[in-house]
Amino acid sequence: MSMTVKKGDTVLVICGKEKGKTGKVMEVFPEQHRVLVENINIVTKHKKARNQQEKSAKIKKSAPIEVSNVQVVCGACGKATRVAHKDIDGKNVRICKKCSASLDKEYVKATKKEAKKTAAKAEVKAEKVATESKAKTVKSASKTENTVENTVKTAENAEKTVKTTKTASTKSASKASGTKSTATQKSTKKTSKTEA
User: Fold this and answer.
1) 95-125, pLDDT tens digit by residue?
2) Residue 58 or residue 129, greater confidence
3) With 13 labelled, which of 36, 42, 105, 187 sits at a CA distance of 20 to 30 A?
4) Cα dihedral 72, 78, 81, 85 sign
5) DSSP 37-78
6) Residue 29: CB partners within 8 Å, gap ≥ 6?
7) Of 37, 33, 119, whose CA–CA distance to 76 is shortest?
8) Is the pTM of this model over 0.70?
9) Of 15 and 151, more confident
10) By C-alpha distance, which of 13, 12, 36 is closest to 25?
């Protein structure tokens, strides 16, 4: 069974008593899903003397740990990452999930070129989005200016109509008062005729 961690990789321990430590993978055991990491999971073995020439001793050495407890450290970005796979020139290559760089040394150049291309495409998209958002803000600003102008015009029109209605009402009031004065004049004339 294939494993995403290979001999020679630098790994970060993500759980267990050694959490947070990094080390180099010395050996891989795919059947047991274990890896042997340098200076990680140190155990003490007691060696017994088999004859009089040998000495008994306590030997400290690294023991294998579960492969699910480690993550590969990317050489390009320096972060612990999960591993993706990609076909490059017909071969399955391990790729960093965070920066898209190759974790296999022989394919580093090819993946760096692809990473640069994707970064350039992302920059172009970001510029397009920025210009579109600027255009939208300019359009909305011009629309708000137009609405402000329209409200000013409607206010001016309302003032004009108010003035015209005031002048019309004053004219009608003066006409009405004029007719009353003539009616009072006629009534006074009639009363003066009847008296005479």
Assistant:
1) 999 888 888 877 666 556 666 777 777 777 8
2) 58
3) 105
4) negative
5) ETTSSEEEEEEPPSSTTS--EEEEEE--EEGGGEEEEPTTT-
6) 35, 36, 64
7) 119
8) no
9) 15
10) 36
